[in-house]
Amino acid sequence: MTITFLAEEIAESLPPTPRQLTLSRALNHKGFITGGAILLLLAIIAIAAPLISPHDPFAQSLSTRMLPPVWVEGGSWEHLLGTDQNGRDYLSRLIYGTRVSLTIGLGAASIGLVIGVTLGVVAGYFGGWVDHGVSFLLTAQLALPGLLLAMALVFIIGPSVWVVIGIVGVLHWTYYLVVTRAATQRIRNLDFVAADRAAGATSGQIIRQEILPNLLPQIIVIFTFEVGIAILAEASLSFLGVGIQPPTPSWGLMIAEGKIAMFYRPWLVVLPGLCLFILVIGANLLGDGLRDITSPEGRN
Amino acid sequence: MLRYILQRGILALAVAFTVSLATFFLLNFASDPAYSIAGEDATPEVLAQIRETYGLNRPAFVRYLDWLGSVLQGDFGTSYYWNKPVAELVSDRAGATITLALSAVMVTIIIAIPLGAWAALRPNTLVDRFALTVAVSAQAVPNFWLGLIVIILFAVMLPIFPVSGDDSWRHFVLPAFVLGASSVPAVMRLTRTGLIDVMQSDYIRTARSKGYRGFTLLTRHALRNALLPVISVLAVQLGQKFGGSVITESIFAINGLGRLALESILGSDIPTVQMLIFVFALIFVAMNLLADILNAALDPRIRIG
Amino acid sequence: MTSPLLEINNLSIRLKVPSGVLHAVRNTTLTLNRGEALGIVGESGSGKSLTAMALMRLLPKVANVEFDTLKFDGTDLGDVPEATFTRDYLGPRLSMIFQEPMTSLNPVYTIGRQLIEASVRIGRMTKAQANTRALELLDRVGIPSPKARMAQYPHQLSGGQRQRVMIAMALMLEPELLIADEPTTALDATIQTQIMTLLNDLRREMNMGMILITHDLAVVSENVDRVAVMYGGEIVESGRSGDVLAAPAHPYTRALLTAIPHMGGEPKRLGAIPGTVPALLQPPKGCVFAPRCAHAEPRCATERPPSQGDKHHHRLCILTEKTLAELPPAVPSDPLPKREMAHEVVLEARHVSRVFHSRSGLFGPRHEIRAVDDVSLSLKRGETLALVGESGSGKTTLSRLLLGLDTPTSGEILLDGQPVEAMDGLRRADLVQPIFQDPYSSLNPRRTLADIIARPLALRGVGTVRERQLKARELMERVRLPDRLMHSYPSQLSGGQRQRVAIARALVTSPEILVCDEPTSALDVSVQAQILNLLVDLQAELGLTCLLITHDMAVVHQIASRVAVMLDGKIVEEGPAAELLANPKIAYTRTLLDAAPQFRPTETPKMEATS
Known about the structure:
By secondary structure, chain A is an all-alpha fold.
């Protein structure tokens, strides 16, 4: 027996800890780094909006309406990305639009997280009729035409940032539910949960201290994707006129406002769309990256 | 098999009616329908009059049962806004949307499945990276914006397809592409992961040990297994295309159900909105049921319990 | 005899893995004659399966295969192009069956289609011929009513039946060489024997060569002519199976033989091999076994071991014939602590039943499964009671009931005289603790070892964090884990080390009873011995009472004082271990005993002479 002890003592150095592995994978993952950098940059822009925007995003000026960006003929350095129909500085509006998108993305994704994770963990852990009930709820939610219902509700309740956050959040929890339910079902059948129960742990303790920490990486991954999805949902609602209302600078709304002039002033539509694209692709790259990093064995 | 389909069918109906109940209460509690009919600045007397006429002063649950009863008898109510039976409105507009949804899913299938399969057979190569790039980008593009960009491109620079209206099949090419593109990432990723999983399975190893390789291995042993989950997801996508048609139809000026929905919402026409949501939910559950049946037909583990 | 059927010289396989290049198989040389059976034995990671996969060209693209010669029936396979190989070799000349019968058949196609398709595709048979042949073979491998089975799907067959179908499929074109990769590992003991007998009979009937890949020396000793022992990617010893098993000439083989619990005679302390199987990211400078070898000399770590012996019995080791002759025999010899017969009952099941209900779908008929059926059982202080049965016998369900993880449908369970149901979870946990089969799932991957071991204390709010850590350290010492591992995570540990952590956690609250559900069946033989020894020691040190759930009669013989045999949810026989193993009263127990591989190198004359 002493031999055993000694031999394991002198065994070569340990493999790296899970945290070290995750970190080294993160640093070597191009998508993760790119996505993270995009989001970080946009977050800084959103926070520092008053400091960096060259003009007041709400200040109208009828004399300088629909100026083109600086690189198009007729553009000026005064308005780098030109002005909109009301003569407001487009760059400043785009910068403030980052705030709207990020607020709604983070807010709605958080609401969805609370609903979806709660339902998913409860269904996965308790199984039986609870699970049947939640699955039924899931199918019903999937059957609902989400955008249509969101439009109707926002329109009826009256549009505001908070209403949009609430409604988009309440309608986007199925992804969390599906993933956490399956993961909880898998984890609850693992022996370490049985060991914990055998050690006297209650269901609450098991869920909070054994299951949730193991779900965390997946929840973060979904959260990242859902931020992107919620941002697009808000943009769609605002584009259709049943989301953020003027004069608040929302990218979706800016596209809708620019639509009338899109054939001869295409940048009015292209620029806010690009902003949306970059922000959402940042979130998606980050999410894809996080998934690769936290579960290296299963890409996608 | 028959019992399985029956079970799925009953479940589908239950889901559809749960959806209608949820929608009814959401829409009726979120607003006072009387206001919607009379307008914001109506006097209390007018409102009371309207409530009396439309039976709005009865409890919501009674009104739901009433609504449900009429629906079951084939009476889908009358639109306040269009002053027409809702059933007529829906049937007039359904054709365009069905065409759009089906062709959109065709677009998805044509792009996503070959690309996903190709990527799965050559994981971590250029092909795979390309497929992944397509998926990540398509996921991040706002669909309405893609529509506008397509219109700008095709109206101005490449006028081969019309960008507005629904008169001929050529009118549906661009909208179908735009609506179909939104499903490409999900379907492509699922095809890719599904096929990768199958190719790594023990029964593919068995087939390889019997001398199967390459294309024969794929068609004779891998494809059916890999496509089972894709069928389900395609059904879900098709079901959601109807609800998702709102944006595409309004951008490309297609006179279908999506546009009807948008106009009804903006016109505060709650009965029409409610009926449309119910119809879309019905279509969704019907598609799901179809997928279940297809899966059962293709997978003996479901067919023979 | 002319040229051998198979000749492999200096086969090496390298695998690209995320952390580098794994030198999985190195300089492996093998020959196999027509009609001969060769056993390749090794623990997990020894490279035994990769060798076979390389031969079948089934390795993934990340594998790099090199060899000097790879001849099949005189033809150099290195020169055979892929298309010719898949058409003319795979099936008619070479065939393989795999370990996982449950997943090795395609779930969406019928048995019949899978049996006949390959032969028809390559034009060896017409559809009708293939059909006839398939029916014949199904009948021959012991599938009842073959005709009906042909139209069925894999999920409608049991694991044993599916393995029979796999065998029939491999034999469709009468291959000259059949490779069987752990063909019985996933099956119950009684079925294992049947499948091995079947394979052996078929091999003789068809005069096939066979390579049997296994981790189980006992399976080899009964079924093959020659054996090659692989360790760390090399063949360390090979020769006629009788010679290798009776007079093992490599320290690894010797150690392995002492690590296996034997059925006959008084149980002896197992000779555990310290440490774990190496992962070879660099080819070893010296002998690959040196770090774990009891006879290692300094030069073993720096020089490649010499190749010694002849082709009848070959080894890769510095030990000379002379030193070998002086070594004690390779059998466990130290006595185990005496087992005392106990009387005081600590855990008792009274007429316990557990019924599960299942429905096929929402409105389908209800099925009732009596997993545990009117079982009465008592566990006495200080004893080790073995609960034996095959999969599906209800033994794990019973153990969960005894642990309080599940409640019986009827009957009652008394723990220290009190009904377990009425007991507070923490109180119950102070009395009885589990050890599970799979050490990879029994530890929370996101906690450190100290955290995992101290978790039961944290649940009780005992002491400060610091005090709990000290206690964890104390327990790690008790289970012989170095305390530098305290802050590492389960993923950094080997299977054996993880099982020690699980044992430490079970002991932290000083329970009276341990319920061990197949505690060693997921581990390699050498590691199993470490854990069995540890359990025996702990029991002696702490006066523990053990309920051991197992399917392995040799393990029962090794550590149990009493045995209860379970079949279809019922206890069918119960008695003192020595008595029951020697004279089973009922037929089922006898079947189980007969099915347990009768591996007794102690009985060979040669060993008698040396000891």
